[in-house]
Amino acid sequence: MSARKLAMTTVRALQIGFFALVIAHVALDLGHPVWWDFLPLVLAYAVLIVVNRWGGAPDSPRAARVPVEVEPPVTGRWIALNSPADHTPSHHTHAYGQTFAIDVVAEPEPGSRPAFRMLWPTARRNAGFPAYGAPLHAVADATVVRATDTARDHLSRGSLPALAYLMILEANVRDLLGAGKILGNHVILDLGDGTYALYAHLRRGSLTVREGERVRRGQVIAQVGNSGNSTEPHLHFQLMDGPDPDTARGIPFSWRGTGVPRNNEVFEIPARPVGARA
Asked: Which CATH number fits domain 68-269: 1.10.10.10, 3.10.620.30, 3.10.450.50, 2.70.70.10?
């Protein structure tokens, strides 16, 4: 385990310890001073400060890089959200290598994707979203270094109450439990030259590849799902400089023939044979 990985694991353990002490103090009426409960939290931030000061910030990119051009991971008509073409970090954090990440949702026809609602319906089933079950393609010839698809696909968070629940409670709990809970079902491909492609929020049981397997550009590797820290069925895609999202930094990408779609930009990718270039 690298020093950076050990530091992130220690920070999560200390944060969990803080919550456990607070709950125990309230439930058991412990006699020690309240400020003792905050010691794990103080230690957690101390660990982060030390790592950032002497080991390089674990949540910031190492250096500016030329975008790596790869094939698009989807085909058909899609809309871009949280795009690095508009701002970086695109998801408002460098954590988990997300600096240049992008989200895309399918909309085969205008208006075919369910709209966000203020109150009702609070949540929707995934089958109502055209992205759910859409095939995902390898963006280059690569080796699968991580592949997991056992997490459940939860309901959408397509209303104000559901979004508040996600942002205030669910997302923070997932963050405490680690990158896997944030990403949900995911695949990481080693593209070579220190570049890794991550596909997150995949559909449960949809993987067609295994760790260690070689894949070809354009090959179907999984389906879009709604697992992990996700509001609706969509693909979260990013390039990074290592196979572990806890320690990797983001790398800018460009999709061949498309570039980097801007927020709310509609783009369409034609189907291509496996291994074919534009």
From this structure: 2.70.70.10
